[in-house]
Amino acid sequence: MALSCLRLANHMSLTRLWSVRSNSKINALCIPCVCHQSRYYSTSEVRRGAVRFATSKLEWAKNKYEGFLKRRFPRFYVLHRTLVEGFKLLFQDAKEVSQIKTKMASHGVTYEDLSYRELEKVRQFRRDLIKAIPLALISIPPFANYLVFVLMYFFPRQLLIPHFWTPKQQAEYRQVYHSLRAQYHWPILKGLQQVSRQVEDSQLQSRLDHLCSKVQTGANPKVSEILAVRSLFSGPPLGINRLSVDQMRQISSLFFLTPRLPGFLINRRLLVHAFELTLLDRALGRLGPHQLSDSEVRQACYVRGLNSDSVSIKQCREWLSQWLQISSSLKESEVSLLLHCLVFLSANYPNDGNHP
Question: Are residues 151 and 195 in the same domain?
Answer without folding.
Answer: no
